Amino acid sequence: MDISGKVVLITGASQGIGAACAEVFRKRGARLSLAARTEARLREISRGEAVETAGDLTDGEVRRRVVERTLERFGRVDILINNAGVGLYAPATQAPLETVRRMFELNVFAALELAQLVAPGMKERSQGAIVMVSSIAGRMTLPWLSLYSASKAALDSVADALRIELKPHGVQVTTVAPGYVTTGFQGHALTGQPPAGLARYQRYAISPEQCAEAIARGVERNARTVMAPRSGWIAVAAARLFPRLVDRQLARINHNLERGA
Ligand SMILES: NC(=O)c1ccc[n+]([C@@H]2O[C@H](COP(=O)([O-])OP(=O)(O)OC[C@H]3O[C@@H](n4cnc5c(N)ncnc54)[C@H](OP(=O)(O)O)[C@@H]3O)[C@@H](O)[C@H]2O)c1
What pTM was estimated for this model as a whole? Predict the structure, then answer.
């Protein structure tokens, strides 16, 4: 899909990957609608050009308002980038269920409801793109982010369902699976902190700008999946082909991280 002139709704646009997406899509000539909780940051990113909707996307009322405001200004949504998401660092055996529900409400249900809100218009025009910013954690469960991984696996499945349903109507659905991206994500987790030793994996990190560029290219070529960085495919293939071996390896890494080794 050619991005120029398209109306692009980006959630989680106040910082990190979402803010970088705003810049990358703006440069390609898109008209933007931006959503997140922090109004002042949205205003900065918008530069007076975009529709800005501040609010908590775990609230269905806010999701509907975001779409309504975009339609009021631009008359349609051509591309939805479901990017807002949050982490949770706690063992599955101990994580408070209320917090887990809150994470699923944002990582899965907000993305699903927003897709449900924009899909009818896209079907009517036989054109549109929905992007789900998931994670490599959706394809292999990271033990320090186990329930976050579960939420992203659910999001991947929702994306597959939407892709199959919407393909005959000319609407494309892309799943994005970033690895480590240098944003404030870890510090924004609903609970817990990443194990200290995880910092050593930062050498595999990409910048939010690189991630946003990969997302834009994915939309342009109607990619089914965008792995960012591409080397993530190696880990995913290993997890598919040798699940027991990868489980053992992850358990060992997790054990060492917990011991601070
Ligand atoms: N960074 C990574 O290493 C990494 C790796 C894989 C996948 N991802 C995924 O990439 C996406 C973006 O993450 P990021 O790294 O850019 O994280 P980030 O810097 O923490 O940004 C998250 C964005 O989501 C918004 N947000 C959080 N909770 C919200 C809520 N309840 N309602 C509305 N907006 C909310 C935040 O804005 P406000 O605080 O202003 O609301 C912010 O704009 C997420 O889905 C994440 O799971 C990240």
Answer: 0.97
Across the beta sheet with 7-11, the strand order is 51-54, 31-36, 7-11, 79-82, 128-133, 171-178, 225-228
Cα(170) to centroid(ligand 1), Å: 29
Active site members:
148
Cα(107) to centroid(ligand 1), Å: 9
The sign of the dihedral angle between the CA atoms of 219, 222, 225, 229 is: negative
For domain 7-258, the CATH superfamily is: NAD(P)-binding Rossmann-like Domain (3.40.50.720)
Task: Give residue-wise pLDDT tens across range 100-156.
Answer: 999 999 999 999 999 999 999 999 999 999 999 999 999 999 999 999 999 999 999
Domain-wise residue ranges, the chain: 7-258
The amino acid sitting at 244 is: R
Instruction: Give pLDDT tens digits for 23-81.
Output: 999 999 999 999 999 999 999 999 999 999 999 999 999 999 999 999 999 999 999 99
Average pLDDT over residues 210-225: 98
Binding-site residues, ligand 1, Cβ < 6 A:
12-18, 36-38, 41, 56-58, 83-86, 106, 133, 135, 178, 180-181, 183-185, 188
Residue 17 CA to ligand 1 center (angstroms) comes to 7
